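Protocol step 4 of 6: structure prediction from sequence.
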Amino acid sequence: MNPALYEKYSRQILFAEIGEAGQQRLLASSAVLVGCGALGATQASLLVRAGLGRLRIIDRDFVEPSNLQRQTLFDEADARDALPKAVAAERKLRTINSGVQVEGVVADLTPLNAAELLSGFPLILDGTDNFETRFLLNDAAIHLGVPWIYAAVVSGYGLTMTIRPCETACLACLLETNGQAHSAGIEETCDTVGVLNSAANLIASLEATEAIKLLLGKPGALHNRLIACDVWAGRFQSIRVGRNPDCRACAHRVFTWLEGEAQPHVTICGRDSVQIHERSRQLDMPALRERLAAVAADVRSNDFLLRFCVAPYEMTVFADGRAIIKGTRDPAVARSLYARYIGM
């Protein structure tokens, strides 16, 4: 390592668990990050500053003013120009560390492109905001045989778990029973109950640290637990999660999300409308109306449906989970809006 590079990472090299050999290994390593919101932006910044050799960032969304409270890679100019997050992140990260190869990919991760976008990386990082994509990541990671790090944050609460295929419990072990995800009812989201930037930064920091351990080839340093914390209440939990011997994904290798069988079906519905067909889901419509009343405009409902506006879109949601999103013909936009306001 030349003197300039050594000086650049000197404080990290002084950390005994990394050292010069570990830093050189990190410089030669790579990872793919899916989602560049609050979790993803902080992870990307930490890993690029740490000297990760190559980082691919996949995100389907664009920067909005409401993102700036917690998404640390973006600024007011990015929001004013409505830059795609993957593009804005790539530009900012290149100014932070020009020695790292950063690739921003503006795309919606789907069963059709998951293998292409995720292959060739020894580690997958979760920066997403919905369980539809997380279950897809879980299937893809097990199929590819690479570890991934699950994380989620909402309100003041967050959690993370490192998943190593065939060695630890996977997301399906944690959140599925008899092959069905635990997603009955309404999922809270950042757009309905808010989120503290400190919660996102804490979870992203834990995730980035686990990533560095994996990339350094130090599995013995991994905590091998589900870590959960409520930063507002000051409560922290560390829970050991065992593998499910009958798990659909990691035991039987049945990849229903990767094969598209578990995904909600999306169709173009009339002019400037997309319909999402959820599967076997019943919504608590009064509870949903109460939650949306604080964040959406013109919330109306009857015994059969609920309608609300989030400019420039109008959403109509039915009790069985089906929804029609007016104002777009882009399935990725429709899925994003559904995840943000209804949940998985």
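Step 5 (inspection) to follow. DSSP finds 13 helices and 16 strands in the chain.
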